[in-house]
Amino acid sequence: MKYDDLCVAAIRSMCLDITNNAKSGHPGMALSSAPILYTLYTRHMVADPYHPNWINRDRFVLSAGHASALLYTLLHLSGYNVTKEDLKSFRKLGSITPGHPEFGKTSGVDCTAGPLGQGIGQAVGLAMAETILQARYPEGEKLFNHYTYCLCGDGCLEEGISQESISFAGTQKLNKLILIYDRNNVTLDGPLSDSSIEDTAGRFMSDGWDVIRVKDGNDCDLIDKAISKAKESESHPTLIIVDTVIGYGTPNQGTHKVHGSPVGEADAIKAKEFYHYDYAPFEIPDEVYLTFKSSFIDRGVKAFKAYEEVYKYYSSAHKEEGKLLESTIHNDVSAYLLKDTDSIPALDGEATRVSSGHALNIFAQEVKNLVGGSADVASSTETRIKDEKTYLPDSRDGRNINFGIREFGMASFQNGMLLHGGLRTYVGCFLVFSDYLKPAIRMAALSHLPAIYVLTHDSIALGEDGPTHQPIEHLAMLRSIPNVNVIRPCDQKETFAAWKLALESTSTPTCLILTRQKVAQNADSSYAGVSKGGYVISKEKEKACFTIVASGSEVGLAVQTQRLLIEDGIDVRVVSLPSMFLFNKNSESYQDEIMGTSYDKRIAVEMLSSMGWNRYAKYTYCQDGFGASGVGSEVTAFFKFTPADLANRIKDILKVK
Ligand SMILES: Cc1ncc(C[n+]2csc(CCOP(=O)(O)OP(=O)(O)O)c2C)c(N)n1
């Protein structure tokens, strides 16, 4: 195009100015990738900067989030609400241009990224969402028909999650996923060759991807051709490998010195001379703005207008589906949920993972856009939606997804699907393997996504599989992540309630923590109680002198212990505390009222780490060491999780013989 060189020079110069001005940031990849993003935005991306949340826009994920200065520059030129002042506030407190892109903070940022590799996972989820929505809506191809682009660097492809992502995307033939790899062969500490000898093209091809090479990362026409070819793919995702030079044009180009610190005024001047760019810092000539106006902006505005017509037609031709889309575009399905889970007849003696399976199947009938699956443990985690197909290239309408044994990838794909909008999702695995999910859970929480994690086999009571499979520290870990609601229901009713709460959420992820073993149904468990996070589940006889606080399967243990103690004349209250997250939202007086006794007259019981429980009780009765392999009931008895042992402990505290 006429002003390609000028535009690319302007973008590069702006990235130098932004990082120099902030005295912080990563100019290296911003400079190497500038022609790639310039070509993508001006010649291919279809999105309307004036309707940045348009559901059918092409998505762009900057997986190498450290190159954020480049993305913000592109958004500024592309007409999004990112001003020059915002660019000058790069990395400053309160700005909309934070160090790494954050979804929801900056118009035009489709995905939070920075933890390397996770952008690729989220891009896979975004691409999946497009295919699922297309198949699940009648005439869905009219509503959902866009590409997902992702830009990554060497670092993203070294991360393990990239492998989980590419092998799943290849298997699922996500042909509208286009991953562009800025191969500048330099990472933070030095040359890529110090840490990788990979044949990247071979790796992708073996996973069912098409691979295109662009040998000169400064040639916009070559980049353009590669993207056009990738868009034509009918059954494979495409990797475009673009050979580039990190820090292009600066005196330290090609070295790690230019990766992660501003180049300084003197080197910026030299680089601009090299680009033949003769403008003051932060100045951009009109030709550049006009180029973006007549390409990206005009294309996007026109496409959005056309879509409005489609939408109008759709809302009248398919009223029900139109309504569903309208309300679920922002992941809100509250209008479709059962009003009352308490009226579902409750079964006694059912494992909460089984109750969860029932709940899922009840809610799946109501919430037609609920899809999910597990990391190859659907039969153990009870995560299958009955009578529904498996999601595959030839059955995109399948609601059951077998993510394979790729926990981190699975959770990251879920983030992508939710980022897209229009779907509700859940993923499942054993609680102990939430370690593998953790970075993606954190990402969901930070991105305000209502992800659902079905985490079963939730204590040493799982038995025979032994300490490798018995979670200990996991609840403390999950509970310590900001904006994550961890719910550990004690019986079937609480499990139904927990699912309802998870689906009612629109911006907080929920972890459902479920037993492998059977538990008794309590008479007084309720949705209202769970929604408060904690409540009295078994009242004292007259006046409690002590309170047992418990969650999940230990509520049953607490109630049995209460009976023993009351027989011995010790009046005790039992509080079920399925969610610390929700309980902490109540007033202090409510919390005290529920607890019933003073802090030093309370014990918290949970067959996992005690960490965190001292906020509620002076004493804890928990499992702070690793468990052991054996029959579940024998393991729990060995570690003294029996009514008699717990009663003795409480008597010791109360100094009662
Ligand atoms: C999971 C994770 N580990 C480490 C980092 C810190 N980090 C940021 S960029 C980077 C090097 C990335 O290399 P590359 O993708 O080649 O980027 P480039 O050097 O081209 O900017 C590292 C280690 C990170 N952001 N995320």
Question: How do you describe this structure in short?
Answer:
With 657 residues, the protein is an alpha/beta fold. It contains 25 helices and 18 strands.
How would you sum up this structure, described in words?
This protein has 657 residues and is of the alpha/beta class. It is 43% helix and 12% strand. The chain contains 25 helices and 18 strands. Helix 19 links the parallel strand 11 and strand 12. The longest helix has 32 residues, at 286-317. The radius of gyration is 27 Å and the shape is elongated. The N and C termini lie far apart (89 Å). The model has no long low-confidence stretch (mean pLDDT 97). It binds thiamine diphosphate. The site of thiamine diphosphate has 18 residues, from helix 2 and helix 7.
